[in-house]
């Protein structure tokens, strides 16, 4: 499919072909019967989200756990390669988000990335991608729960076992994620985004006021560990690259929001606003924290500026960490919910079946996220595992193929069209490499962390403070 502007200035969709005339269809005129959620009398109206609210939801999906992990990857890669990775991956993630949105608006019956997989690959690919989607958002949901447990530990001076704090965080996430409509969560995301943004900003300012990093030896000489270009091994390097990629790769979570937007064609505006803010913030915040903390940066990075600022930052950022996990659990639960009730009258009806299925979905996803958070209690490794094992095929490889599917005529077009066509195939190959290489690197790092005592043990009360 290709896009063009209509005479009235609105977006239009034209079927991609190699020859012949094409029919122009305004997005606003797409058959409403194809939409998952209908605007009808007597049913719950899910389509109530404006594009500004959508952009804030996207911001909270992306700008949360990612910004807390990038500074520590800078130490592995070095400042220059780290900055290049941030810019490069954010560009690709934005491009893939736009591809997914355009494809969805060309196939209005698609509610999730799995529905799009069904269009291009049939039922078997739909099931594979659906499973990947659920695993992905269970893992990043676990990272949000783990981050919230670190915050509660910091605020309470480790008053109780970390796993109990994870359980408390999971219960809060379940409650927040169980709000049915993105419109309701959208208002919560304003507070969540601001809380994390302010908390990170406080840390950024705080680290610049210290003579030496809080975690470094406070007397005598010490090695800051700041490098313009690092010297990582393949395992540590690919893990750091996967972590940076993951920090902006949650674009498949944008798609269910489109089905609840009042004007789905406003999606692109919401994406550009979100990704512009995220990219500028990631680059500036991570470079400043790494420049002042070097190898002594904490992960999550909110603990990098000393005891007092750590407590202040976690106190302010706690809501944002919970809202992040809430969004991840919500989008995964909404996928299951729609799959189960899509062709049922209970999808948009305030019935016992409707609420039972919905709460069952949010509860089950919360439980899975809790198990993952307790089993892999190192923040960066959770994100790197998501980036390599699931986000690479889901947010990089599949969007590349969605574009190829709708632009087959580019293969026989001008030199520019042919180059773009094969660059999208190259993006698919990059996703394959990151999936295989990244997963190997992360798994090896997790094995080494258990062997070296960095992780006291899954589901144990051992102090994993060196990871937080």
UniProtKB/TrEMBL annotation:
Its main location: membrane. It comes from the Eukaryota. This is Amino acid transporter transmembrane domain-containing protein. It is found in: Membrane. It is a multi-pass membrane protein. Residues 48-443 form the Amino acid transporter transmembrane domain. The chain crosses the membrane at residues 51-70, 128-151, 157-178, 185-207, 234-258, 270-292, 312-331, 352-372, 378-404, 425-443. InterPro entries: AA_transpt_TM. The lineage of its organism: Eukaryota, Fungi, Dikarya, Ascomycota, Pezizomycotina. It comes from Phialemonium thermophilum. Keywords: Membrane, Transmembrane, Transmembrane helix. Belongs to the amino acid/polyamine transporter 2 family.
